[in-house]
Known about the structure:
This protein is mainly alpha-helical and 249 residues long. The chain has 2 domains: 2-165, no CATH class; 171-248, no CATH class. Helices cover 78% and strands 0% of the residues. It has 10 helices and no strands. α3 (47-75) crosses α5, α5 (107-118) packs across α7 and α8 packs parallel to α10 (219-248).
Amino acid sequence: MLNEIQQTNYQVPTTKEDIAKFILFGREKLSSVKSEINAIKSLGLAKEVLDQKRVEAQFLSGVVIQAQVKLGEITKRIPKAINQYKSASPPSGLAKSKEIEKMGFTKQRVAEFEQMADHPEIVKQVQNEAKATDDLPSRKEIMRQIKKTKESLKPIIEAKEKEAKEQAIDYDALGKRFKELFATLSNNNKLSLGDKDNDFLQHNIFTAIDMYIHKFETPSDKIQAGHNIIKHIKTVINDNQTKSMDRAE
């Protein structure tokens, strides 16, 4: 595989099995080149030889990262369990954990590849920074930057989640309130409908209310629509109570 990497000018393969082998042997080759660089430094050999090895290490580290990203893109599509998604079942018939084990990686390492695939801009940033400082880009540095980015975005995400939670409609509570108000309205009007008719009328009112609320797009508008309906029902109840008192007098 090392010879294949050299002969193909470090081109990343296309199948997940070959990509996995490419990464494993590529890391081995990179480790070998790093050892050569250290030896050259220790022996004080010509700068040209050292620069040549540095270029090789930079290029090799970059292509290994490229392969890791590509493998992450593929493994994201593998279902965790067989037949979890019929159309996405792996050709091998193996669950994701078995696929990962077969490729020679741990779940944690593949999870990192998938995060790298989800953040191509950070991968590119780390590679550019390493090139600018004559250093080698690494998976560890990419993961450190991804973690740093997530932590910086955490307050924003939490604020949005809190806002969404505050705007969320509690349909159970809203429905219960409608039932209470409808029962009061029915009693005050002394409806002469039978139980079945009454239930049918109540069901249709709730259905109409639900359809009305769902016409609004934003959660805040839906909540306001619900409150408007409650307010209207209360007004009807109060009006009927006033009329009943007037008749009693």
